[in-house]
Amino acid sequence: MTTSDMADHMADQMADETATVTPLHGDENAPGFRSPPHNFEAEMALLGAILVNNRSFERVQEFLFAEHFADPAHGRVYEACAHLIERGQIADPVTLKNYFKDDEDLKAIGGQAYIAELANAVITIQNAGDLGKEVYDCFLRRELIDIGDQVVNAAYEYEMDAPAPQQIERAEEMLFQLAEQGSSETGFVDFKTAVTTAIDAAAAAYKRDGELVGVPTGFTDVDKLLGGLHDSDLIIIAGRPSMGKTAFATNIAYNAAASKKLVEGPDGTDIEEAESVAFFSLEMSSEQLATRILSEQAHVRSDSIRRGDVREEEYNRVFAVAQALHSLKLFIDDTPALTISQIRTRSRRLKRQHGLSLIIVDYLQLINPPANSRGDNRVQEVSQITRGLKALAKELNVPVIALSQLSRAVEQREDKRPQLSDLRESGSIEQDADVVSFIYREEYYKERERPTPRDNEKQETYLERETRFNELLEQCRNKAEVIVAKQRHGPIGTITLQFTGEFTQFSDLQADNYLPEERF
Predict the structure, then answer these.
(1) Which residues share a beta bridge with 506?
(2) If you count Cβ atoms within 10 Å of the first and of the last residue's Cβ in the chain, which end, N or C, has fewer?
(3) How far apart are the first and last CA of the chain?
(4) CB atoms inside a 10 Å sphere around CB 189
């Protein structure tokens, strides 16, 4: 056989094989074909149950919508039923007639006669809820397949603006959104359930010596005023630069992570479990925050730790504290310019893997606005951010602390104690927050008012002014005020704390006549 004959023979063979291949697209019986998950029989049975007895709609209306049906015609019938029922009218084949007289999709499957067939084919209406869950489950699986296709296609396409880590975050976000669909819409809760939940919270507070309902801050007077940090609350801690906002937040983070909560064990008895804290640091690195906590607990200056300028005894203290901190469930994310969506995704992941008791964000103005809001004015952007933080607190049922900057209006007043109106882009922050507190250190401002000699001033007069100044400075030295200006669930007030700047440490203020206990 010549080369030409071989080529002709192969071409004929390929043509024969091509002629015998059956197209896979659209043929469910073809090898390798997999149709998307659906259950047309369940959809038909559910629609029939609703048409026979409109009260069946009440069993599925909370979680099932028209877009969840695999057959678009079924979805339109369901939507029309919902529209009529919500208007107080009867949904049956007669009342639906005018809705579908021009619907081509419905005509293709039988038109008005098909709707009557749905109603006549119903055997029972008792399982409407189960049928709705079956329809919804098929929808979720179709969505899961769609997400998988998007992830695969995005991974194949190389884009400079979408590196692999960002694609992973996007995939996680889509999966979490799918998993959470309908879970946050709890609908009405009867009063008995609400009272039981409140009693459970009171019982938890009683077991904690009657002081705390939520996560402890570690500061006695703050916990007494707030009752701890409550689940689903948004707490704003604001202040001017150098007031100690981040130091206060890291102190709370450590104190919360070092505390224990009582949870019910497998055998029904209460067991202690460590609190888990997420700290989103958009301003400082995780190393800087860790150094602050080491400085606070070891009582060694943080700048000395960074430079390695410590004595052997101080180094041993730092090492011992570091060993003790290893067991804390304190997680720091120092990724800059995160969005609310990214914070939500990472918080959900942490809660699923390690549990979650508290979220801290440092600070609010550094959060990137949603992509669809770029170009809006700053007040609208901050409004979306604060609403997102409040929604995050409710969704994960944990307190969220967000630090915030204050406007320069404080500096123009003689009394520089902050007020609610001093919050930068204050309207939405004040409105969405459950608690608004300010950090104020009079010592910071007082030090900048140190008197200097005036022209032709007598030395005695200057010394008198300096003495009075030193007396006033001493009264506010190493003291900080936590001003609770808004509390949705309790009173407002001012608490004075001890602040040791060299160790960035806040602590309970001891009375002037306090003497430590003697140790024998």
Answers:
(1) 499
(2) C
(3) 111
(4) 9
> What is the Cα–Cα distance from 218 to 324, expressed in whole angstroms?
18
Q: Is the per-residue pLDDT at 56 higher than 90?
A: no
Q: How far is CA 103 from the centre of its chain?
A: 43
Place of tokens 């119903």: 122
Residue 436, strand partner residues: 236, 486
* Alpha carbon distance 360, 279 (integer Å): 5
Q: Distances in Å between the alpha carbon of 452 and those of 320, 380, 448, 475?
A: 46, 46, 11, 20
439, 231, 254, 293 alpha-carbon torsion, rounded to 10°: -50
How far apart (Å, rounded) are the C-alpha atoms in residues 273 and 385? 32
- CA dihedral for 150, 151, 153, 157, sign (positive or negative): positive
Q: Coil, strand or helix: which one is 330?
A: strand
Q: What is the pTM of this model?
A: 0.66
Distances in Å between the Cα of 198 and the Cα atoms of 194, 201, 213, 318 are 6, 5, 10, 43
| Contact call for residues 230 and 401 (beta carbons, < 8 A) | no
Residue showing tokens 């700047």:
501
Q: Could you report the per-residue pLDDT of 351-403, keeping only the tens digit for each? A: 888 889 999 998 888 888 866 565 567 778 888 888 889 988 988 889 999 99
Rounded to 5, what percent of the chain is helix, strand, coil?
A: 50, 15, 35
- Residue 409, CA distances (Å) to 47, 80, 405, 413, 428 in order: 62, 56, 12, 7, 18
Contact 359, 235 (CB under 8 A): no
Over residues 78-111, the pLDDT tens digits come to 888 888 887 788 888 888 877 777 666 666 666 7
Residue 60's closest CA among 129, 130, 140? 129
φ/ψ of 189, rounded to 5, equals: -115, 125
Helix (H) or strand (E) holding 333: strand 329-333
Report the C-alpha gap between 506 and 479 in whole angstroms. Answer: 9
Beta strand 276-281 with 270-274 is unpaired
- Of the candidates 65, 54, 64, 119, the one whose C-alpha atom is nearest the C-alpha of residue 89 is 54
Q: Give the count of alpha carbons within 13 A of 134, CB side only.
A: 14
Helix (H, G, I), strand (E, B) or coil at 271: strand
DSSP annotation of 368 reads B
Alpha-carbon span 109 to 366, nearest angstrom:
56
Q: Is 61 helix (H, G, I), strand (E, B) or coil?
A: coil
Reported as half-sphere exposure (CB side, CA atoms, 13 A), residue 186 has a value of: 8
Tell me, what amino acid is at 150? Q
